[in-house]
């Protein structure tokens, strides 16, 4: 997918059943560090977590991500960096959305080994699918759609 094809995409989702709000940033590079740091601060990230997030974001590393949540405020910030391939995007997306589902489950005292946490994951996929699908194919046709839609 690479840097030359994408600008960062911002998405806000709200999972009504759990009263949980999340800001998701896709195709992130170090240019967007300040914006994301402000959002992390807004949701109440600790000083230690802010430092860790800053180091991660400012590195500009591809195929990485982060998820921070305020369990009491029921808010999360998720970052998926620019990825090198559709497969790497799928891995990062699944990984970060897994953290989000886990955070929601913990905040709601839901058994992490049961079915409900998986249903949370299904809800997250449903809410993020429209954006995520842009990054899940590498064929020329889809790449051209991404360039047109994103660029």
Mind explaining what this structure looks like?
With 151 residues, the protein is α+β, with helices and mostly antiparallel strands. 49% of the residues lie in helices and 19% in strands. It has helices spanning 33-42, 47-59, 86-107, 115-132, 140-150, and strands at 9-15, 20-28, 65-70, 75-81. The chain has a 4-stranded mixed sheet with strand order 1-2-4-3, sandwiched between helices. Helix 1 packs antiparallel against helix 2 (47-59) and helix 3 packs across helix 4.
How would you summarize what this structure contains?
This protein is α+β, with helices and mostly antiparallel strands and 151 residues long.
Spatial sequence of strands, sheet with the most strands: 1-2-4-3
**How many beta-strand runs?**
4
Distance between the termini: 13 Å
The percent range for helix content is 40-55%
- Sheet bearing the most strands, described? 4 strands, mixed
Radius of gyration: 15 Å
By helix and strand content, what is the structural category? Answer: alpha+beta
What is the strand content?
Answer: 15-25%
The overall pLDDT, averaged over residues, is 91
Number of helices: 5
Q: What is the H/E string?
A: EEHHEEHHH
Poorly predicted regions are 1-5
Shape: globular
SSE blueprint:
Layout: E1 9-15, E2 20-28, H1 33-42, H2 47-59, E3 65-70, E4 75-81, H3 86-107, H4 115-132, H5 140-150
What attributes characterize this protein structure?
single chain, alpha+beta, 4 strands
């Amino acid at each position: 997918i690479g840097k030359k094809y994408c600008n960062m995409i911002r998405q806000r989702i709200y999972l009504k059943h759990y009263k949980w709000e999340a800001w998701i940033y896709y195709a992130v590079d170090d240019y967007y560090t300040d914006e994301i740091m402000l959002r992390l601060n807004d949701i109440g990230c600790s000083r230690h977590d802010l430092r860790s997030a800053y180091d991660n974001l400012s590195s500009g590393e591809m195929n990485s991500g982060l998820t921070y949540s305020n369990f009491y405020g029921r808010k999360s910030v998720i970052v998926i960096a620019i990825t090198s391939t559709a497969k790497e995007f799928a891995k990062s997306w699944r990984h970060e959305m897994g953290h989000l589902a886990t955070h929601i489950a913990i905040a709601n005292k839901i058994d992490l080994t049961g079915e409900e946490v998986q249903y949370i994951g299904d809800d997250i996929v449903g809410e993020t699918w429209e954006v995520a699908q842009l990054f899940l194919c590498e064929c020329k046709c889809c790449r051209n759609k991404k360039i047109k839609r994103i660029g």
